[in-house]
Structure to design on (194 residues):
């Protein structure tokens, strides 16, 4: 019994390390950015999507959630700093969407024993939809009701969705290529932990 408890503890330690690693990668991705009005284009989507693909739904969402929590307690890991006041930034909805996106991507990937390129890209695009479903309405609400910068629905869709679609779809395709190579390796390694 004691040996089983130690083994379980060791596994959760490795999982915590993986979650921390992806939270750090997401933070790094926040600073690899292309300035766009209202919401900058960053590499965060790639790392949150890979967290869902490689770690699965639960750990992928934990990684993205850990990143958001670290930023909200005050560490400057978001594109414009950190702190609890960041919830009033127009881009905060996308951060919440990253958590949901990582979870959904991971949940879809978990259905396949050996996910291929098409399944991984499909899962990544489903996660991307979750990011937009959280981010775009949040952008609209913050811009129109909190900030003194009202935006119409057309402007929100342009600057919160359309501008990002080509880059985000390309990111999902890149994640598809990376996932087909890395998922078998990660799964094999995680099975050896048990």
């Amino acid at each position: 019994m004691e040996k089983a408890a130690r083994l379980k503890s060791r596994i959760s330690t490795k999982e915590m390390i993986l979650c921390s690693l992806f939270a750090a990668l997401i933070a790094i991705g926040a600073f690899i950015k292309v300035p766009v009005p209202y919401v900058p284009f960053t590499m965060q989507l790639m790392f949150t999507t890979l967290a869902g693909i490689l770690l699965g739904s639960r750990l992928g969402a934990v990684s993205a959630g850990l990143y958001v929590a670290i930023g909200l307690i005050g560490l400057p890991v978001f594109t414009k700093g950190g702190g609890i006041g960041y919830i009033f930034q127009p881009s905060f909805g996308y951060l919440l969407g990253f958590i949901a996106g990582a979870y959904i991507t991971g949940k879809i990937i978990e259905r396949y024993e050996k996910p291929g390129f098409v399944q991984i890209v499909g899962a990544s695009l489903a996660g991307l939809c979750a990011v937009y479903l959280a981010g775009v309405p949040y952008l609209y609400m913050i811009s129109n009701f909190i900030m003194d910068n009202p935006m119409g629905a057309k402007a929100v869709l342009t600057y919160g969705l359309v501008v990002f679609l080509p880059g985000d779809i390309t990111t999902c395709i890149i994640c598809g290529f990376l996932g087909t190579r890395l998922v078998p390796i990660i799964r094999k390694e995680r099975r050896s932990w048990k």
User: Anything to note?
Assistant: The first strand starts at residue 33 and ends at 34. Confidence is low (pLDDT under 50) at residues 4-10. The domain at 2-192 is CATH 1.10.1760.20 (Arp2/3 complex 21 kDa subunit ARPC3).
